[in-house]
Amino acid sequence: MATEQPAKTRTTRQGLWVLEILNESDSFMSAQQLHAKLVAKEKTIGLATIYNRLRALAEAHEVDVLRTEAGEALYRRCGVDGHHHHLRCRRCGNVEEVESAQVETWARSLAENAGFIDISHTIEITGICAACHG
Amino acid sequence: MATEQPAKTRTTRQGLWVLEILNESDSFMSAQQLHAKLVAKEKTIGLATIYNRLRALAEAHEVDVLRTEAGEALYRRCGVDGHHHHLRCRRCGNVEEVESAQVETWARSLAENAGFIDISHTIEITGICAACHG
DNA sequence: TTACTTGCAAACGGTTTGCATCGAG
DNA sequence: CTCGATGCAAACCGTTTGCAAGTAA
């Protein structure tokens, strides 16, 4: 393994703040929510910077990205190791993680059988959670 | 309490055009692509109308909607009966349909066990197809 | 006739970008 | 000192909406 250092990302105060917030939370958040959290912490940072950092992190696969039905992007720090999917309540927005080796296998072999390579997949299950329809 | 009005959608020339295009194609398309196809057929119709129709159709579950990574909405006529998912090539954009009762069951029971109701799900598998990496 | 539909144009909301300035290396 | 990072403001882009005119029922 090469001691790859192509990541020429400079260490800036703002960049660290963004990571800090991402690390503090274990659920998806939008760029604007992240910005709000920093403002709440009295950190001065521009929205543009957040979008820049987030895009860089996404390209480097350091965060996972998903889109809400409204077209808004949600980000979350997500180790490449723990691949999983989400069960989200459409009412309260709460997200639970979901894993299933079976489904992972199904998706992979299906695509392989079709001659695909470099396979990836996304699964989103939504509904109204018990607390919300109780 | 509920003054339920049934679908009181008027039959208009434009509404029919939109359905016509949706019926002609068996793959997802954006509102703008749909508009372009109508223009190509010398049909005069406003983009706003297409968005209106499409939104109404989506609310009535007459079309399926999904979002591209770029946040653009794609629509497709899709009978409620034939629920299926997609295997898409990231290079050529080709889409194949995929079905699996197993996975449908898995998704449903998973959400039910978590106490969810009104469950729905989306699965997107992507990769590079045989023709593209051959 | 009634009131839903159309469609132009303007508003919107999330995201990206131009560019002058800041600051890490 | 250099060159990437920052962030305000403005551009972008897909989508929604206000409203006057058109039209199905």
Multimeric organization: homodimer
Briefly note the structural class of the backbone of chain A.
Answer: alpha+beta
Taking Cα atoms only, what radius of gyration of chain A do you get, to the nearest Å? 17 Å
Greatest chain-chain contact: A-B, 36 and 37 residues
- Between the first and last Cα atoms of chain A, what is the distance in angstroms? 53 Å
Tell me the fraction of residues in β-strands of chain A, as a range.
Answer: 15-25%
| Chain-averaged pLDDT of chain A | 84
Roughly what percent helix of chain A? 25-40%
Number of strands of chain A: 6
Runs of chain A in which pLDDT lies below 50 for 5 or more consecutive residues are 2-6
Order of helices and strands of chain A: HEHHEEEEHEH
Number of helices of chain A: 5
Q: Based on Cα principal axes, name the global outline of chain A.
A: flat
Biggest sheet strand line-up of chain A? 1-3-2
**Main sheet record of chain A:** 3 strands, antiparallel
Question: If you had to describe this structure to a student in words, what would you say it looks like?
Answer:
2 copies of one chain form a homodimer. By secondary structure, chain A is an alpha+beta fold. Helices cover 39% and strands 25% of the residues of chain A. Chain A has 5 helices and 6 strands, in the order αβααββββαβα. Chain A has helices at residues 13-24, 31-40, 47-59, 101-113, 130-133; strands at 29-30, 63-67, 73-77, 85-89, 95-98, 117-128. In chain A, the strands form 2 sheets. Chain A has a 3-stranded antiparallel sheet with strand order 1-3-2. Chain A has a 3-stranded mixed sheet with strand order 5-4-6. In chain A, a hairpin with a 5-residue loop joins strand 2 and strand 3 (73-77). In chain A, helix 1 (13-24) crosses helix 2 and helix 2 (31-40) packs across helix 3. The radius of gyration of chain A is 17 Å and the shape is flat. At the A-B interface, helix 4 and strand 6 of A face helix 4, strand 6 and helix 5 of B. Strand 6 (117-128) of chain A pairs antiparallel with strand 6 (117-128) of chain B, so a sheet runs across the interface.
